[in-house]
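Dissemination and training. As part of the outreach component of the grant, students in the summer workshop were shown how a complex can be specified as a set of sequence lines and then modelled as a single object. The example used during the hands-on session is reproduced here so that future cohorts can follow it. Participants entered these lines:
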Amino acid sequence: MDQIGKVPAIHPRPTIGRRLDATARAAFPAGCTVVLMLLTLTPFGFADQAQLLPAIALTSVWFWSLYRPLQMPPFVVFAIGLLLDLLGYLPLGVGVLTLLAAHAVAVRLRRALINRSFMVVWLVFVVVAAGGAALMWALTCALYLRVLAPAPAVFQAVLTIALYPAIAILFVRAHRTVADPARA
Amino acid sequence: MILRLSIPARQALAKLTLPVLVAASFGLMLLGKADALLAERLRVAAADGLAPIYAALSEPLHRVRSAIDDLHALVDVREENAKLRDENEKLRRWQSIALALDAENQKLKANLHWIPEPAPSYVTARVVADAGGVYARAVLLAVGPGHGIQKGEIALDEHGLVGRVTDVGARTVRVLLITDLNSRIPITLENSRARAIMLGTNGPRPRLAFWPEGSPPVEGERVVTSAEANAFPPDLPIGTVHYNASKVAEVEPLADLDRLEIVRLFDYGLHDAVTQPDQGVAHTVDRRH
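and obtained this result:
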């Protein structure tokens, strides 16, 4: 919404409908992240279904921090992280810190990555997902005061990396349509 | 937007948010560590809020799953039938033996003036969600409001022991499974009547430890609960002993822990036994209310 005032152009009058539209577009990244996270908890009965929740949260926060940082500000990332900790039965703060770290990396690399091909972004995300899973594992170990088996963390990293293309296709489409504030 | 700050001031503030929030997340870790009850209460509240959605979704999902299972079963219905007829015959022989033994048992108990154990009360609940996350093994059950379930009640499915109730909310109950890393269960090896401890590993089969010298667990031996420490009633079926590839004694659980749908919660009046925290935090806060 901030752009509306800044760009010297002819703007339509901000009626209630248009404002609602703009708000909905601005809230889309955070909203769809939360909805996807809740969907992963639906009892489908897959083995290791619990791994989906951190994978979706990390992918979503990474994508929107990279392509729509205004709609995924740090305090929204913080709230999503808290939700991840509560719903994912992680020690409090673990999901928050991991997602904030991913957000910081995305914002830092934004200029370098924004016009790159999908493959390059995915390759960078491989490192981010592996780092995120490792950070979660290390923090959980530290807070439980014991060394946990690293296999779930490895699986989480692999799952996150593998899920990225599927989620990115959906998000790229949304990014150009429903989440685009310029179209309000 | 409300505050009219100069652009450099706003930029400086924007740069500060992330470090402040990172610091806040460390603060959250400390808070979670200092007050384990807080995180637990928040989680129970979140689960209670979401339980109606899960409960509504879980029923059609269960139906779809059982429809798929039915389709699978249709394919090999002939073989299944032959197998069942065979098994039925065997079971009928066992039934007659069981009835004879039961009659004899009753007679002997009558002679001994045996004090009968009180029959436990139980409630049946549907499993609506996984409540373990990545580093724990637990399930969430949907129960009606005013259920009266307490911490420490024992969960069984139709085959054997599932776990224990660790958190109780208004509409949901969390059951820590026997495979969880923090699960420690006193057991009896059925053949030798030797006591041992079953340790959860987060893997599919818990390990056995601390059996007396001279009576190691035998492959295929049945494992049942022991009344030691008064956490469990004696002789609930758990599983069978199995030695894995690296010669470690494990228990193959009878309960279908990966696909739990319906669980019964038994009240044996042993609530005081649960004092262990379910999140593996090594603190000594007494969590009884």
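The two ends of chain B are 47 Å apart (CA to CA). Students were then asked to discuss how this feature might be tested experimentally.
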